[in-house]
Design goal:
By secondary structure, the protein is α+β, with helices and mostly antiparallel strands. 12% of the residues lie in helices and 29% in strands. It has a four-stranded antiparallel sheet, with no helix packed on it. The two termini are 25 Å apart.
Length: 301
Amino acid sequence: LNHSPPLSHVTSLLPHPSLPHSYLTPSLTPTLLPPLLLSLPPSLPPSPLPPSLSPLSLLSLLVCRSSQGRVPLYSIFIDPSDNNSFAISGMDQFARIFDRRNIVINNKCPEPVKRFCPDHLKEPQNDSVKANITCLVYSHDGKELLCSYNDEDIYLFDATHSSESEAIKRYKGHRNNQTVKGVNFFGSQSEYIVSGSDCGHVFLWDKESEELAQCLKGDFNGVVNCLEPHPTTPVLAVSGLDHDPKIFAPISHKPTLCEDITEVTEANSKGRDQDWRMVSGDPFGRLIRRMFLRRFRNSFQ
């Protein structure tokens, strides 16, 4: 991709499965890069594009907005069952689903087809503490949408339900605070949920029961951010603050469940509670955080 602004503002790059040489990408800085891009190499003629996308709409596909202005974006994922649909998440509490066919040149801020958020997070308890989704992914069949919230839990939504429907599952034990954490499904039928954590562990939950099935040390310097399962075999690649990625596979002849799993989850919960009390109970802390967030958001207007 050839852009004059630095690509460090782009958080991910997603090849479009049905548009050759095309990519979808969210951006944290809408004033430098559009929050969502669909780009083609200069040498590629526009003829492969469908009629709904003209060459004029390639660079800026849409701008995500909320009542507070433009929303910087962390994550994007294309529905595997319908390549016209994609979900995005960013610096607010809603996961939004858009249909590419509804996006036109003269309307860069279309309404989402659906949006999801746990009921208790729809209205923040105060201006200084507001949940946001650092990562979202679809299940293998596109029927479920998984969202990881900053310093909150992981929630599973039924993507076939109506807009604003409540989450159907909730996964606890990890902590997503220090960096932008990823989340993913694991298994050919999306049977498990995997996430990194500030404590440096990889957490794996049974999707249906919500029970923690496995907890592995994934990063010795403290944080696991990214998790990518192999598309056909039970192999998981993870990375964090260490210089090298880790590969996990079921080859051990001995049980590998983390022995101090209770201590790890309790420490994560305690740390989150302490941070919450420090911010929500300290008027000066709330003021500083509110000023920071206002200035940060105003830079995107």
